[in-house]
User: Fold these one by one.
Assistant:
Number 1:
Amino acid sequence: MNYSDLKVKIQTGPAAAACAPYMVLPEDPKVPGHVVREKDQAIADLINAQDPMLGEVTSRLIGIGTVLNVLGPAEGALVLDTLDAMKAGLSPLKWAWTLLERDALDVGLEATRAQLQALVGSAFTQPQADAILNLARNTVFVTGADVSIALRGV
Amino acid sequence: MAVSKVEQQITWSAANTQSLNSVNWFVSDAITLNDSDWEGSIQLRADNSGTPASGDTVEVRILYSVGDVDNGGGANDFPDANTAGTTASQANFLAMLDTYNNYDPDSKVVPIDTAPKAFKIAARAAQGGTRAITLAARLITHRSAIS
């Protein structure tokens, strides 16, 4: 668990407004442990539901169906059409496309991730690229204890 | 035979409480056990200085006097405690207080052996460098007196 990332997520992420009433920071007046535990757990529940923490990048093979599923049929088809049209003039994309057709494109590999990122603006939007890249990262369950460490340190 | 309960504050350099403000061991003054005490307990109370976080625990150990076994004299030697409280590896575990997962202040009463001549207690806060925890301790014994 990267506690710095978790703190940023709690304070500025999509769930920040919902988390704000439960936040207890070191500079705040003392709150007893049995009370603050419930507040920390409330934040953990909000983060897990609304803005989950992502773990380390691992190997994950994807194919055409994965793209359609993650981006949605219409948006996914549009992206695939764009990639299909671009592949003739872009050799790395041509071979990546071959792997994609075989459900064998590993979005956990550093080179693949860099190539996908490089296509932002031409084939993908950043949120679309993030959606595909995040397939290679598992969701990490956040506990109230994690929140306490993120907000008040060790 | 009259029976009474006797309480005695455990002190650190004569102070009733000790702020555990680092991860080091803090060793109390020595307490001599009365000959008439046939059972005893230590009352412990740990109060976090700030809002607790996970891991804000206090480990408490007891260092019984090993007497003056090499000289055969009447003095008290304590395992580890003579090394400026930097270690308590030979001390007996007494309690683990947790100001995050339990209540804050967290309290506990732990029985001790009254056969030894004397004891000290050693305590350290796992995250005392970030949030100091104030520890207070008291000995309570069941004491008999022949009248």
Number 2:
Amino acid sequence: MPADDRPDHPMDSLDRFAAETDLEIWGGADGEQHSLVDLVNRVLDKGVCITGDVTISVAGVDLVYLGLNAILTSVATARQRIDRDAGPRRHLPEGGEQER
Amino acid sequence: MIYAYCVRRAGEPGPDAELQGLAGRPVRLIEGPEIGFWVSEGSALPATPERLREHDRVVRAALRSATPLPIRYGTGCFASEADAREALRTRSESLRESLARVEGRVEMGVRMEWTPAEPAPEPSRGSGETGVGTEAPPGGRAYLEARRAELERAGSLRAAAGAALDRLEQELALEGVPAVRTVLPRPDVAGLLAHLVLRSEVQRYNECVTRAARAMPEYRITVSGPWAPYSFS
């Protein structure tokens, strides 16, 4: 890919791209929710882990993951999951093991 | 406490004085001989969408001048600046290697959603079965059969998602561009691709995605980015 006169600034070229095409950038038409999904997917789930011995205990990884669980399960996803899980389990005979 | 957002090479521009991090805290640089952290004073905070945006805002600010190594939310916490400096020393080699891998590049993402949104119909319960229990509860056999059917559906959905993602990668034709793929992260999303793209090729990347999206109208294909290279750290 030859260098051209574009500024070496991905945000600039992407802004221009967004103006020229119908593809969504940063969630575009969907706005917040779409980009939040991408954001959560990265910021909470990816990236380098810098956890020294002391760090883990002090930072409270559990704390972060508790928070993570709270937001990761969006209402829609939770509902889907409940619906899905509920299906077969409704068929359990009385006294069967109900996990819900 | 010190909270770190990202890793930078020493000598690269530091954060602007007005840049705000978690909960509006100022951001500063802790730099060793070869690499440094962008940090704020204070401990980690429970993850909320707002906190995640604040974390990413700092990483994104770094991305503007040079590609940083983003730190996963909440995992770069140190009891003191001395501890942070110690981490810079002990992790220096691996972090520099990772920084070299992402240098001059940004992460771009493609999301591939099924259209219509739900490819997986609600379990079509077998003959005679109804979802709502108007009949006498069936026995364990019916349960296990329903369960098996559900697992088979899940398996075929995953296979279909994998095939769709294969096809998308073919359409994109981004040979040589490092990629991370996630098959079926959620039922409504067939897959995600993350690519580590040269800054100068962001435009070409977007053109590739546009072309692929047109070639595969049966999916809703969206691009996001540029991101700091979270998926390649």
Number 3:
Amino acid sequence: MKVNSPSVALFIPCYVDQFYPQVGIATLELLEKLGCQVTYPSGQTCCGQPLANAGYARDTVGTARHFIETFNDFDYVVCPSGSCTLHVKEHFPAIAGLKKEQEALEHKIYELIEFITDVLKIEKLEGKFPHRVGFHSSCHGQRGLHLSSGSELNQPPYNKARKLLENLAGLEWVELSRTDECCGFGGTFAVTEEALSIQMGKDRLADHLQHKTEILTGGDMSCIMHLQGIATRSKQELKFLHLAEILNQALS
Amino acid sequence: MTHPENAAEFLKDSQKAKWHDETLWFVRDKRDKVSKGIPEWEQLRELASGIKDNVLANLADYLEEFERNATKNGIIVHWAADSEEHNRLVLEILQQQNCTAVVKSKSILTEECHLNPYLEKHGVEVVDTDLGERIVQFLNQPPSHIVLPAIHLKKGEISELFHEKLHTEKGNEDPAYLTQAARVHLREKFFAAKVAITGVNFGIAETGEFVVCTNEGNADMGVHLAQVHIACMGIEKILPRRKDLGVFLRLLARSATGQPITNYNSHFRSPSSGKEIHLILVDNGRTAQLAREKFRNSLKCIRCGACMNTCPIYRRSGGFSYNSTVPGPIGSILSPGLDLKKHSSLPFASTLCGSCTDVCPVKINIHEQLYEWRQEVTKTQGEFAKGLSMKLANGIFKSPLAYKISGSLMRNALKSLPNSLIYHPLNIWGKNRNLPDAPKESFQQWYRKNRS
């Protein structure tokens, strides 16, 4: 580790902590391989997004205050989820007495991929990953954090994850029919609009299967949990990995 | 019925649901291609949004300027505070003309006011002359889409309907044949109507003229044959200057159907000699929405329908699932302002994916307003139990210890409970989806063991 490297705090979303520890480990190892000094502040819990999106943002004050205090002493906060990152940046309620700290947090929290490409300024990673990889573009990362261009907008195409993945030796990028349609997870939507949620997930999976995806990846385990849940139930032969897992494996 | 119930019903016919999704995706795709042919597309959206900001900030002044200039041009201007007043005004004009049969081109405003049933109740025959609207009118249905009113029907169904209503050949599904039959049928109605009703796409404050956009020319056909033209206009449809039209006409049809421009963009400024133009300016909840700061932007809407075509929920649940005159994402932020209780499930009929916001030609932050309406709905309509569980969650998330205990309880439960208990009928997540395998330890536990 470099002596003067910035201090990076890992924010591991609650469902990743509980269900996907391997994604947290891959994120930590990857950042360390890239020369960061990484700490996982103990006592972190959740960003409060499930409550806020269900219409109870006013009940997330305690959660947000705890979050801001937990991550106050670091140069950067890095999170392997675009959705949670966006929530901290845009949907935290204003916390009395912590205005300065909250503003600073909004500017120093990054989704993992954008931290690599925009802060560490890494253009390409040397490694290999000989698989056909289909990318699920999660909505909050794409349309909220602008991690890739949206099909709706008239803008030059770009995709920060693709840039890193495509440089890996042997990796084949899968072109989909609908490059950025929502998978239907949507937090509580997955349960309150169950029928639609399942249909949207099935349609995304069909697009990947039709284009012969071997490994489906993305920057948000919540979308992947939903897609994998449907694929497993219908016994589909698809593997699922978070982007951090692919990059970490490729670099080893 | 709530939106989830209606959506589940719609999805039962999976072939038709798939067709509906693909048909609207085709329109969205066409919109993408044609909008990318305009290098300054994003600037146009920005400009349109800015013009509408100005309109909303100075609405009263522009409306008075519009009224002054329209009156100078010989248009008779009326004001309606709500749908009842609007409907009464229309009926009064019809009664003055002794008119019992009227033709109407597409107007979502008159749908919003439920004008047709009102007039029919008072002995007036109303014929919708837009082909899609005529089709749904035959079926006694409202439009399922604001631009494509009969998009929920396949041509076989239309063929059957026309066989019954217009005596076309049984089983003939040829669109040209069916359209010709509708033209012949509508021609009679056009000739017979003394009064024609139209909507308004844009009212120009500077000149007192208004513009009606159609693809079928049915508004023009109706108006030019009738003695009296009644134009019904929502007060938010104002543009300050005629030159602003250039921005909006370039955006409207491209966003709506992927056409460069609607086939007919007709300007109405003065009545021909011996004829009358009545213009009814309708509020019906618009000033209330204007006063709601977080939701004011929704009044920028130019009714292009692009947010419906792009919405993954609308495409898979159909327009009727929303049970509101304007369905889809824009309807879900407009309708709660009219009746929060009735439409309380609509702000939740979204994953907040944001696609609606990015296709919107006037840059309405639709998905952010859906989020804000959720906060409003739970304040007044929230189910007690849901509120309680969310408060409990906040209690867990603000306390690291409570979070740790509940997390490990959950993981252990998932590991040790039999599948029959995990996937019981109350577990909606597990109805059609597996849960992830529970790992032996959380990341926190791993980190403590390996790194600290």
Number 4:
Amino acid sequence: MKALGIDLGSREVKTVVMEDDRIVDKFKVSTMSFYRDYCKFSEGIVVDLKKLNVAEADVKISTGYGRNNTDLNEFEVINEVKAHAYGAIYQTGLKNFILLDVGGQDVKAVQIEKGLITDLELNEKCAASCGRYLENMAKVLEVSLEELSTYSNNPVDLNSTCAVFSESELIGKIAEGVEVERLCAGVNYSMYRRLKPLLTGFKGHKLVISGGVAFNRAIREYLARDYDEVITLDYPQYNGAIGSCYFGRKVSN
Amino acid sequence: MEKIGITTTIPVEILFAAGYKPIDLNNLFITADDYAQYIELAEKDGFPKSSCAWIKGMYGACLENGIDRVVSVVEGDCSDTEALNEVLEARGIATYPFAYPYQHDLTAVQRVVNNFRELFAVGLDKVEKMRNRLNEVRSLAHEIDRLTWQENKATGFENHLYQINCSDFKGDIDAYQEELEAKIAEIEVREPREKQLRLGYIGVPPMTADIYQYVTDFSAAIVYNEVQREFAFPRFEEADSIYQQYLDYTYPYNLEFRLAEIKKEVAKRELDGIIHYTQAFCHREIEDIVMKDKLEVPTLTIRGDKSRELDSRMELRLEAFLDMLGDMKGGSL
């Protein structure tokens, strides 16, 4: 049986095809391009699978931010938090863990026990703890996201709660002549400090990280100090789409 | 009959036999229109914000309802009750401590029940006679329980309500018997519920009794209320004395004993999941560590505080949990 999962994220739309519990195809397009180039708006949102170059699937599941814009024709919509939980269960084989998903514009912390969600914290109001914060700060520092994520030592202190004020604070530090490595580490550390309160209420020793920020080595390093084990998924950005396929294969039939 | 407050289930046979009208202060507090003011009153008098809402509510309920005698359980329930006692005494309310023994054996139970009986100067014969009378009414509450889990006719809330009231029989045994009989007649003629997720509720009774209704939005029904069921002494038929009956009561004793009974009911009632309710600032929150560890069935812990209604975060958690539990039951996950 073939399952197609689409995760409509705030920045990118991720598509995964699974067959017999194996991922056989995955790709992403920008959210703008997805709606503009691959959808028709007639009696709901109709996805042009041919254009997307995806073969017809037996089950089609969509998920993503906000229920209305994820309601694709012929797709069953599932809750985004659940999709991520299933994705992480499939990718790790674990049943008890804490999932931290840091996407472009939102953060989810989810407690999974015995394979079910038992607690969750969402942050969708503060840009300073999302991927977008790292992107902006990397731009200010004129380094790539990849390079930014490699620095964790001796972070410069950035105290602002707000993403916009953090930028001015960072510029102030640049003007003080602080070296770029410490500035990068400071950005990473300030992000980690904002993520931490989301996780404090959750019990457990294993943390699974998904979303684009899972690629940030420095943040992984900081988190590793708080847990016995920090697991980065093989396909952190595709986790929601993978979870959709997993749900489709296991549940809807 | 003179009113006497109780802070949880105690050998209420003794109070009835002594001619008192027992009033469960928890019920008096939680069903009051101005329940929040009871808590406020307690906080104004100095009860910490970081203390249990039930303790504060019972304190307010005593003061606002002119209760001048209270039997308070100082061991086996909540050690804060010990301090509550002191404050009540200072306010001129007479308190009678009752302590479930730490040792879970017949001799120990016999000792505390006899002490309590002597405190109210009633003979064992009268107490045993009263036990038989109360057990007749308790068996009606058991019937409502059976109508919940076996016949799928009584609701989770009814199951909660009619068993919990067996702590004090609402102060009037005959009237409560009549109420139960009428309720059973009403429930019996209902159509059974369609197949649903079957949930168990464990832990102290909730502040947020809307939980029973809320879960029904997700095709789920609570068909087991652990502590409320214990309040109705479901195994009284196996007890040949009041001592035996209060020995075979899980709530005040060790977790292992409680868990063994819960596990038995999880299997018998074919439960899909458990909701463990804990009260903010209660020592039973710590017991949750062991509960979750020892129960194989998926368990969600909900922590209530002062409100009688679930907050949006609790609702979101329940929704996510029940959603996935439904997948688990419906599919092959």
